[in-house]
Please model this.
Amino acid sequence: MLAKERADVASEPLPSFDEAEADDPAEVERLWAEEVERRARRVLSGESQGIPWSEARRDLLARLTDR
Model:
């Protein structure tokens, strides 16, 4: 997956959470459940293939150390 695709995937849930009442845990839970289901459908359909955990972990650690 290209870096831009990873950034797109990472930012996708943000607009929907902005609309939610941040103080309502049930609403946040519902939105996360919808997001997980949407992402699972993308994986199962072959639209999104993901990356190995070792690569994702390495990328995350690199980002954290660059801060």
